[in-house]
Structures
1.
Amino acid sequence: MSTWQKNIRVVEPYVPGEQPKLQNIIKLNTNENPYPPAPAVVETAQNIDMNRLKLYPDPTASRLVEALAKFHGVKPTQIFPGVGSDDVLSIAFLTFFNSDKPVLFPDITYSFYKVWAAVYRIPYETPALDENFNIVAEDYYRENGGVVIANPNAPTAIYRNLDFIRDILDHNQDSIVIVDEAYIDFGGVSALTLLDEYENLVIVRTYSKSKSMAGIRIGYAIASETLIKAMNDVKYSINSYTMNMPSIELGAVAIENNDYYDEVAQKVIATRERTVKRLAELGFECLDSKANFVFARHKSIAGKTLFEELKREGVYVRHFDDERINDFLRITIGTDEQMERLFELLEKYR
Ligand SMILES: *Cc1c(COP(=O)(O)O)cnc(C)c1O
């Protein structure tokens, strides 16, 4: 092997869900929202003056940051915006996890966490979920270099209440605790109310699921001013202009029209509850979901078989080859019509 070859950073990358180019498929594999963005977002997008693209965007994304601060009742200096929450989480890992001690996150969770840890050379350990796929709080009581909890967790969809989050925080006063709330708008209670008490808490949110804007790439962190300043210092050391002009505008308009998204979330939740019932009739067990997807296993048929069979019929769901969960399918909640097609296909396995 040549010297330059040895100097290449080798990582095993995260594998995103498929984005098939085929028409007429039913896409229930990446937890996108089946409903369109708020009408005001679409209208603003159609009227953005594209001549403005000749200028750099506002590096502070202040229009977006101020709208988010107002919405959440925090100071603008407590918001860090990024290109999807993946960007925000990546900067958070780089900024906060600089200890020799391992960062802790569950064995079954968002699989990107261990990829960031690997690429940034952050030591980590992954305490196992219990047999009911719950996070075991006691596993996070030991010394560590940081903690990352997705709440609701992915891909299990299981939500833990604020007593649980508070317990994790109380036992980790010497670490930064990241709570990834990608799915919090689908029935959970946010840890936002704990921000005043815990200066080491970082909450991460995304526009990709509840705001129907996965395609524009917006996410953000909410935390104490000290932590947000540290994230900005790192960001400005890599790329000052992460947020493009249209996403700054449209992200602000979206949060200013959040009533629309509350209604969308209610529709998704109603469909989810119907889905859980129907899947039970069809021989599936679903973990308790407070997300816009369900994690379900059939009583007798292997996850992979069902995954492939559904794909052949044009219904894409997600399957993970990981041993503990390979009997499960992660099924995004689509429209009622899309779910009907899924149920129809599953009838023959009843
Ligand atoms: C979807 C997802 C993300 C990433 O969202 P983007 O904002 O689209 O980058 C982060 N965390 C979890 C748990 C997710 O499910």
2.
Amino acid sequence: MADTKLAKGSSSAIQSGIAFQRCLNSLCGATFDIGQERTACDRCGDLLDIEYDWSRIEVPKRLSDFEQMWTRRYEPLRFSGVWRFHELLPFAPADKVVTVGEGQTLLQRADEVAKFVGMDAGKLFLQYEGMNPSGSFKDNGMCAAFSHARMTGAKRAACASTGNTSASLAMYSSVTRLMKAVIFIGSGKISYGKLSQALEYGALTVQIAGDFDDAMLRVREVSKDLGIYLVNSINPFRLEGQKTVMFRVLEALRWEVPDWIVVPGGNLGNSSAFGKAFRELKQLGLIDRVPRLAVINAAGADTLYQLYERRNLRWNDGAPDMSITCHYYDDLDARKAKADTIASAIEINRPVNLKKCLRALDFCDGVVRKVTDQEILDAKAQVGAGGIGCEPASAASVAGAKMLRDEGIIAPSERVVCILTGHQLKDPTATVAYHTTDQDKFNEVLGSRGVSRASFANRAIAVPNELDAIIRAIQLYG
Ligand SMILES: *Cc1c(COP(=O)(O)O)cnc(C)c1O
Ligand SMILES: [Zn+2]
């Protein structure tokens, strides 16, 4: 079996040069040891990538070889939907790997949603990352960052979060007891489902008078000052774990590559990780073609859309024209523009992984779209009607697929996978407001966001507390 080398793996073998950190900037290219904690290049300040010397790693010859890992589910490393692909993210020695059983997720064929999107039956799939232990895809990355934090001997880990990163960090911290969690959140921009997780799991929660972008700046300063391990998606190890979402998609499609991957875009960690996953699989000869990538912004937080589709910002072989980005951010500041969308998980105007996402868009012949809160909520209602719902940000993928289908960019016969990033129960306020009969409630939560109708509302029927009336109502509506 090909995996024995790593499953038994000696830490020294893995740390001595098989994996290293490398600056994304092609003009710099500085490399750093895997054992050090860094969130940016020392020399030029750019993002870091995790790279491997694949010639020294025993990677299975075919992707289907990974199916043999299923037979060893009693081993925590093979039970995990992330670590059973350990050979494709071999930065941590087996004895440092952290898992709480993440990545046991489902790719579901969704014919009703396909109809809504305008696809042929059997062509649209939903990848339910809300099934992770903390209820969002963030666990895929957090177990990887936590493993690296453990390699560095960290005692505390911190993040700024729109909610799900903090829920995930708090969970790993309390289940494993390996590190204390410190969480920075903005005020008023976090759903109760997510906040309740951080509080109940016992994380130290710091609420800043500001929005996510403010909290992000502060957490970077504070972690540097206090030497706290930072687990935001600027952390390159998190993205290694998130690659496995794509491995599981391929696995569920019996190792066939779909035509499209459609993913919501916030800090652009997922889209970056997906691009890296396909680049490496191709490089290793494990796939022979790559899917196209569609990244979907909310209209109220559409930086990537503005830069990529409107201002033609491109990867440009590792030297994107970042003056375009600077001008754009200066203009946001001048207008005092703040991100604003019901999809709080992607309510981000300064995506930290922008450059990596440009690389992914380049490699996967990508497109970017923006969808309104109205489109997001209608798509969410359609997903939810299929039984395994999602939070608002996740439904941006389905709304985006519909838009690309309407534009004729996605053909009805192509195979499309939409990533559902978070669980339905993360944000019940938006869902209940959408389905309510109480117009005031609707206006309070959704009206201010430009949502004017609930096209697929399933409204409760109000009846007096009388048996006859109840029976009549059920006969009438049922
Ligand atoms: C974090 C998050 C996103 C955004 O993902 P990025 O990788 O930051 O683009 C989208 N949806 C949900 C539910 C999230 O928690
Ligand atoms: Zn550099």
